[in-house]
Amino acid sequence: xxDLAALEEKLGVSFNDPSRLRQALTHxxxxxxxxxxxxxxxxxxxxxxxxxxxxVISEKLYRDLPQADEGEMTRLRAALVKRDTLARLATAxxxxxxxxxxxxxxxxxxxxxxxxxxxALEALIAAVFLDQSPAATEGFIxxxxxxxxxxxxxxxxxxxxxxxxxxxxxxRGQPPPVYHLMEASGPDHELRFSVEVxxxxxxxxxxxxxxxxxxxxxxxxxxxxxxxx
Length: 229
Fold this sequence. Notes:
This protein is mostly helical. The protein has helices at about 5-10, 20-25, 30-35, 45-65, 70-80, 85-90, 105, 115-130, 135-145, 145-155, 160-170, 210-225, and strands spanning about 180-185, 190-200, 200-210. It is about 60% helix and about 10% strand. The model has no long low-confidence stretch (mean pLDDT about 90).
């Protein structure tokens, strides 16, 4: 069996029951080729890990993006938990080096396959959840996703709506969008900004927010909703 102490150190998690970690790393091909093994494959853990990860990321987005609507939070969550993101994070911690694979899967490059890496990472999250406390699991996920979350939270939908509007206008041969601050009102600690977006002399949309950037994003979204397809 692989010595998993190095992986535990890398993860910052010391498992009370190491068999949970081994199961998280066990691909179905290994179980199929080793029917007498005490290990089960990681598919059930993957199912649970997907739900745990979704909850932690959803709560983080909900708390840190109070101006984001359901659709925007859903888009950001989908980007954070998609297979490519999970596989990239798994690669960053060399998770593929520790997988238990069957000979055929090993020979076909299974240690670097995105599907295997993403599944193993979700299973690993479930293993931590079952072995540690919910708070420890949340901490583990937030450490693992720290850079990805920082990138998503810094965008907060701003890049998405504004870039979509710019691309749409460019495709139609129209002038690029220009954002104008119309008003900043309220006490200093609760300022509300109002912004309108124009293409040439045409007002396309208006929006408000707690910052100019959020107001611009809201204006871009309004424009996208009202422009004909």
